[in-house]
Amino acid sequence: MRARKRPRAEQPPERRPPTEETRRPNYFLLGFVGALGVLSAWLLVQALTSARAVFVYILVALFLAIGLNPVIEALRRLRLPRWAAILSVCLGLVAFLVVFVWAIVPPLTEQVSSFATSLPSSLDQLQQSAFFRDLDRRYDVLGRIEGVVSGGDFGQQVFGGLVGVGQVVFNSLFATFTVLILTLFFMASLPGIMDVTYRFVPRSRRTGVREIGDEIVQRIGAFIAGQLLVAALGGVVAFLFLWLTGSAYALTLALVVAVTALIPLIGTTIGAVVASLAVAIGDPWMGLVTLVFFLIYQQIESYVIAPRVMRHAVDVVPTVNITAALLGGALLGLVGALLAIPTAAALTLVLKKVVFPRLEER
Fold it and tell me: Basic and acidic residues compositional bias: what residue ranges (predicted)?
């Protein structure tokens, strides 16, 4: 019998060399994918911009929680449970806000009412003066004011201004309440947050990272404590000076000076200007004396008090502090200026403990 021939193995299909049509990219597909990427990035930026206020609230609350943690630990050393220490700190913050509002709102309301009551008589005296009559004859001041007041848009502008002021007050109250609630939750869960954060680091490096992280938290707390001490001292000095000079709003202006002193670089100047203007309304010469006093005290605070208080809080060169505060203020405004100096202190600590030793070993 004749053996059957085995079938030939199937030959692979012949490959043709690539032509220009096969090598040409699909420009439509590339453009479509690129447009989707740009659109996704734009939507992400818009979402982050819309949620900027929420991120700012979270940053401020976390900053306050870390800064107030040394106070909580001090209360715990007095054998208070953590929840009682947190509750005591929160009650202290609320009490300060209540005292601040109580000291600010009644005098401000009284001044506005007094101004509104004396406005007609002040205008009559102004109209009777020779200077105003000559000014009205030249530029028709009364006619222009009457035209603005009797215009149809004047009522809408006044109403819109009142609505705008009310909206600003409501937003400020909402922001303050939100930050207080977030600070409460962060203070309660700060040890857990730190432990979870350290678990993202490999076990072999976790001890060193924990040591640096704990020192950063300690420095932030020391910075806030130092700022509060400097601000409180400025408020006490302002109260004593204004009380001795016979100012009727010594406590109110002292609280304004203390709160504005928390703003880096320009806070003390803002408080001095506000207090001097408030005093100058009743007595211009005394207002000038007040301004001179605060300028002298500002120099003492900047070159004597603050360096001694902050010596162990933030071990950062003053030039770095000023640069960080300016950059933080340009990026996030007042919040950025407040967060910039502790951030610079944390980066300086990382450079000294991690980066520079490794560079020396090479």
Answer: 8-22
Token pair for residue 307?
């360096």
Alpha-carbon dihedral sign for residues 86, 92, 95, 96: negative
Confidence band for 164, pLDDT divided at 50, 70 and 90: low
pTM, rounded to two decimals: 0.67
DSSP track, 6-31: PPPPPPPPPPPPP-HHHHS--HHHHH
Contact 186, 61 (CB under 8 A): yes
What backbone torsions phi and psi does residue 12 show, to the nearest 5 degrees?
-65, 150
Separation between Cα atoms, residue 47 and residue 51, nearest integer Å: 6
Q: How far is CA 51 from the centre of its chain?
A: 16
CA dihedral for 266, 272, 273, 278, sign (positive or negative): positive
For range 322-349, the mean pLDDT: 76
Which secondary structure element, helix H or strand E, spans residue 245, and what is its range? none
Q: b/e for 307-333, b at 16 or more Cβ within 10 A?
A: eebbeebbebeeebbeebbeebbeebe
| CA–CA gap between residue 57 and residue 53 (Å, rounded) | 6
The angle formed by the CA atoms of residues 52, 56 and 62, to the nearest 5 degrees, is 145
Token pair of 319, please?
A: 């030039």
Alpha carbon of 110 to those of 26, 98, 120, 294: distances in Å?
74, 18, 17, 26
Which CA distances in Å does 154 have to 83, 85, 136, 172? 54, 54, 22, 27
The model's pLDDT over 40-98, given as tens digits with 9 standing for 90+, comes to 888 888 877 777 778 888 888 888 888 888 888 888 888 888 888 888 888 888 888 88
CB atoms within 10 A of CB 101: 11
User: What is the dihedral sign for C-alpha 119, 120, 121, 127?
Assistant: positive
CA distance 343 to 314: 10
Higher-pLDDT residue of 114 and 173 is 173
Tokens of 330: 């340009």
- Return d(Cα 208, Cα 214) in angstroms, integer: 10
**Distance between CA atoms of residues 254 and 57, nearest Å:** 27
